[in-house]
Write a structure and sequence with these properties.
381 residues; alpha/beta; Endonuclease, Chain A; 2 domains; 7-stranded mixed β-sheet
Length: 381
């Protein structure tokens, strides 16, 4: 697949959706244990811990057994990946690639990270989402609750496209796979999907498709994202949709978040959003790390991309674009449940917030505008 591209539409075969980190970790472990020929893993965060050590043991054992194991790790996101683990993997015969090591003399390249989550096994099973191979996702770290996550799995031609997407980042060539092994009974097809790849400085496909969907919305636009720092074009599209009478809802983390200061900076958008008719919800039970958008009950996208400047303009991202009512209705049901467990921020309650919050939000807003302007200037060079 070309840089900054979208794949072809295919039926989503053997589609599964996971929201609980315990079941996500179990699904990843099971998938790796079942590998017979090849494991491809591209990840933004993989750090020392109990679950990561278990994943490492599986990868090492598979590599020693002759399974081709390829890993692409973001050099900044995986800074806590132990050196001893690197040696174990390479001694076992695994191929490990570091993406964009830190270079203070080339900040433009350093800003471009691979934020993708790609797992492909034997070219037949694929998974993507916002998950990380880290105990914090399972334990919640200081929040005390597992992160609220979203991972989707599927097979068929889209798994083959995922394999090609992995190869676009990994510098070690992938060998041909043997003929596909026979599977079980065919699972019902819930809809169609295609992959959206962001590979800046090429086309920002995820950003383009999101804008197109919001601008065409007629009934509702529901968005869940852990980091909300949209550019001017996305903000304007959301305001315009709300003015058309579209039910626009944004689901964001509440007090349980891994970036408390960033949360106050994000809240500087609340006043204008609320005044425009956009409804804002803050998720309370845990840190919300799901990344999902649903439009009109017919279109949806899930994956690694946040609704922020870095994901849309700098990071390598991978989302699944979906269409079809049975599939999209699953996500509508999920978001409906999340809204019920969240606190809605009304314009009246927002205007009554303490003065210190306003001062903090305004100060962080000024800093953010300066950083956005500087970052976009670097992007356009």
């Amino acid at each position: 697949m070309a840089k900054g591209s979208r794949g072809q539409w295919h039926e989503l075969q053997d589609f599964r959706l996971y929201t609980e980190m315990a079941t996500i970790a179990e699904a990843i472990d099971t998938c790796l244990l079942n590998a017979r020929e090849e494991i491809l893993l591209e990840i933004y965060i993989f750090e020392a811990g109990d679950w990561p050590a278990r994943v490492l043991d599986i990868l090492v054992a598979k590599a020693e057994a002759g399974v081709r194991v390829h890993l692409t790790l973001d050099a900044i996101g995986c800074m806590a990946f132990p050196r001893a683990w690197v040696q174990r993997l390479r001694q076992a015969g695994a191929h490990l690639v570091w993406y964009h090591r830190l270079d203070y003399l080339n900040l433009r390249q350093t800003m471009r990270r691979t934020h993708r989550r790609i797992l492909v096994v034997d070219g037949r099973f694929a998974a993507l989402g916002g998950f990380a191979i880290a105990d914090a996702w399972l334990t919640g770290a200081w929040t005390g609750q597992p992160y609220r996550e979203l991972m989707v799995c599927f097979g068929g031609p889209l798994a083959t496209q995922m394999r090609m997407a992995f190869g676009s980042t990994h510098r070690v060539p992938l060998l041909p796979l043997r003929a596909a092994m026979p599977g079980g009974a065919a699972a019902p097809v819930l809809g169609k999907g295609r992959l959206l790849l962001n590979s800046p400085p090429g086309r920002n496909t995820i950003h383009e498709r999101l804008l197109a969907a919001i601008r065409a919305a007629r009934t509702h636009v529901w968005i869940a994202t852990p980091y909300f720092n949209p550019d001017f074009w996305v903000r304007r599209a959301l305001y315009q949709a709300a003015h058309r009478g579209v039910d626009v809802r944004i689901l964001l983390p509440g007090p349980l978040t891994d970036h408390p200061i960033l949360r106050h900076g994000v809240r500087r958008y609340y006043h204008r959003m609320l005044a425009a008719g956009v409804r804002i919800f803050e998720y309370s039970p845990a840190f919300l790390h799901s990344k999902c958008t649903v439009v009109d009950g017919r279109w949806a996208t899930v994956g690694s991309a946040n609704l922020d400047l870095l994901s849309h303009w700098f990071n390598r991202e991978l989302n699944l674009e979906c269409r079809g009512r049975p599939l999209v209705n699953l996500l509508v049901t999920l978001l409906s449940r999340e809204f019920q467990q969240s606190q809605e921020i009304t314009l009246a309650s927002w205007l009554a917030r303490p003065r210190w919050q306003r001062v903090l939000e305004n100060g962080l807003g000024i800093v953010d505008r300066v950083l956005q302007k500087s970052a976009l200037a670097r992007y356009r060079r």
